[in-house]
Design goal:
The protein is of the alpha+beta class. It has 5 helices and 11 strands; from the N terminus they run αβββββββααααββββ. The strands form 3 sheets. A 5-stranded antiparallel sheet has the order 1-2-3-4-9. It has a 4-stranded antiparallel sheet with strand order 7-6-10-11, with no helix packed on it. The radius of gyration is 16 Å and the shape is globular.
């Protein structure tokens, strides 16, 4: 699959979802279970990845702007409510990158890159024109110690604050500090320019 596929397939998903505005749709791709929701022309989709990195649970997230106006997305716009009522806020990408630069090792790099690429290249509906693949090209040029390489991998993979123009899309990993445990059952909430997207997991 080429990178240009996300915009094409993602926009098709937007148009299909418009008929069922504000209805969560589930699908499986690349061995992962995704949930997707469209509101006001903006589609948010995610799947929990089968790995933890340095105590973080990791979600793969993609956002497609099918509206007529620019929209800003950022990792700190995500939070997860556990069944006991506790809320875990997503960690900002700079903090994740900094931690990996200081404490990351070869295994962190391998886990991040292998799991994320397996997920994204196996998910035919997730191909962005403003996401991981573009950041990966920049990260490939970075060398140095293992911590720096881990930070470069996290920089490429992490979902970053992005201003999406109409028809633009982006993807990335959102990190939740959860003591190395999967998030499991609960409610994922994402806010995109004041619009709330809510997903329930069992």
């Amino acid at each position: 699959m080429t990178i240009g596929c996300l915009a094409h397939l993602g926009m098709a998903l937007v148009w299909l979802s418009l008929a069922a505005e504000a209805q969560v749709i589930e699908f499986y791709s690349g061995g992962l279970k995704y949930q997707t929701l469209t509101k006001s022309g903006v589609t948010v989709m995610y799947a929990e990845m089968p790995l933890q990195v340095r105590g973080y649970a990791v979600l793969q997230v993609a956002v497609i702007n099918g509206s007529a106006t620019p929209r800003t997305v950022q990792p700190v716009g995500f939070n997860f409510e556990l069944p006991d009522g506790r809320v875990i806020r997503a960690t900002g990408e700079q903090q994740v990158v900094s931690e990996l630069q200081q404490h990351g090792g070869r295994n962190d790099v391998i886990k991040l890159v292998t799991a994320y690429e397996k997920a994204i290249y196996g998910a035919e509906k997730i191909r962005s024109n403003n996401g991981y693949e573009q950041r990966r090209q920049a990260a490939l040029a970075m060398g140095g110690p293992s911590g720096l390489k881990a930070a470069a991998a996290a920089s490429a993979i992490a979902f970053v604050r992005t201003r999406l123009r109409p028809k633009d899309s982006t993807d990335g990993a959102v990190f939740f500090a959860n003591d190395g445990k999967h998030l499991g059952a609960g409610i994922l909430r994402a806010v995109v320019d004041g619009e709330l997207f809510e997903f329930r997991t069992e």
